Automatic annotation (TrEMBL), chain A:
Region (Disordered): 1-27
Subcellular location: Cell membrane
Coiled-coil stretches noted in the UniProt entry, renumbered to this chain: none
Membrane topology value: Multi-pass membrane protein
Pfam families: BPD_transp_1
Name of the protein in question: Lactose ABC transporter permease
Keyword Membrane: yes
Family of this protein: Belongs to the binding-protein-dependent transport system permease family.
Source domain of life: Bacteria
Main localization (coarse): membrane
UniProtKB/TrEMBL annotation, chain B:
Keywords, alphabetical: Cell membrane, Membrane, Transmembrane, Transmembrane helix, Transport
Record's protein name: Lactose ABC transporter permease
Main location group: membrane
Membrane topology according to the record: Multi-pass membrane protein
Keyword Transmembrane belongs to the record: yes
Ranges for domain ABC transmembrane type-1: 68-257
Native source species: Microbacterium suwonense
Superkingdom of origin: Bacteria
Pfam families attached to this UniProt entry: BPD_transp_1
Amino acid sequence: MATQAIVTSGGTGRRRRSSPPPDFSPRRGAWLDTARRRNLTGWGFLIPAALLITLLSFVPMIQAFILSLQTGRGSRLNWADPLWMNFERLLHDEIFKLTMFNTVFYLVIQVPIMLILAMVLANLLNDPKLRYKAVWRTMIFLPCAVSLVSYSLVFRTMFATDGLVNDALMGLGLMHDPLNWLGEPWTARFVIVIGLIWRWTGYNMIFFLAALQNVDHSTLEAARIDGAGSFKTFWYVTVPQLRPMIVLTAIMSINGTLQLFDESWSLTKGGPSYNSMSMSHYLYELAFLKNPNVGYGSAISYVILIMVAVLALIQLKVGDKRD
Amino acid sequence: MTKYAWRRVPGYVFLSVFALFSIFPLYFMLVSATNSTQDVLASRLTPGGHLFDNMTALMKQQDIGAAMTSSALIAIGTTVLALIVCAVAGYGFEIYHSRGKDIVMAILMLAMMIPFAAIMIPLFRMFAQLGMVNSLFAVIIPAISTPLLILLFRQASRSFPYEIIEAARIDGLKELSIFARIYVPTMKSTFAAAAVITFMTSWNNFLWPRVILLDNAVQTMPMLIANLTAGYVTDYGVLMLAVLLTSLPTILVFLILQRAFAQGITGAIK
């Protein structure tokens, strides 16, 4: 989110603070003690955050790996034989393959559309001559203030068989019979993609807007003087300068989409019969509903983890290229 | 209009269409909350007179007060604690910078890559062992230290003038009071941005509360509205009212703090 954005601009370059603090103590050499004490104070400031992250993220990550090598129902667990049994089972699990397909489909279709929309919108809103800027920005950002479950239910209502969307489409003469949007695999997936675009475009737009503040205005002027149209200026001058932000919003979005749960749970309930279910939703069903199988669930969670990590690494590599 | 002005028309059209697309589902939610289910299904798009009927029906079905309280306690608790822990850490990383801290920071940032689904099962077992199933603390604790917020504060601290800290030290202020009495008041917009992000994420969080809060007495608002569709027949007017009630707090927080929010994000990215 907000903060990932920030990694780019700061870079790893180091800073002004390395010079020793001035000596105000009457004793000679006392600054060393002061420096050491301040260094320790700094560590003290970090400890709560570092401990919490270690205990609540890194330790569970290791535990999840151990669990993924175990098998059994409920709390009685044994080592799987062979150890990779859960992972092998995944290869033959048709439902798992279907949920993986759905998740990747959402990712491939929705993320590019959303990021391009967000960039174009940010560029339009960045126009210094645009009026009512705050009103536009608020309208486009407002969907992000709504919870995933809330908007999922609004979309569920709008796309119900006897709902607004069908009424509107039939009223316009575009359709004769109502369509069961949430009852057919492809239309259900389509509704989820529309919902994701609705909820997240404004969010990403805010990051592009912030990044546009750092775009060099003289380069835009130069392009205009050279006779480039607004599209060419946008594509050849603005977009390359936004590259670090594009990489970051892409990582955030990919990460978010691979973890998709709320929409699958509330909007389509994963249906019809698993055809729009996300991997996280399937994991939840396996680990917490019916006959909990935490070992198998943990194996799925590791597949999600590896997918996130690999895609993020690719993104970073691609985004690292400098012209 | 000049030629230059004409060139802008497609842009304005695009902006208007997208703004309408953004606002329409919210408008639909708002009017449907005042309509009966029949009206909602008849696609009525004007406000109706069923707001109080819907309210009564909702209160009969669900304990709205309890859910609002749980959600508020969780969201406020998380925001306050997260702001303290992450601001202190971000400040510590930047103001007391050392190579060792850079390494720790890099390791902590790796946690950003961990999907929540991947650690959910062990977390549940951990809290279950501590007897904290159904406890609001179990919802709050995993959310108070996030790499994202730490980064936000670290990055924003870069623009904080170091001379002020030196001056305060000469005046004899303790390190912690420098943070509390000088840093916090100067970095208001960063705190606002962090508060908006944390409050919204926490209020809207669904998966983890759904896993750890098994008792309906402690359910949160997103859990409550998800339950409303569990039956065979959905009362859409009531559902949309509940959705509206769930959305109002985060929308209000955003509208109140939005100027500071935008400033805080921009300031941190520069």
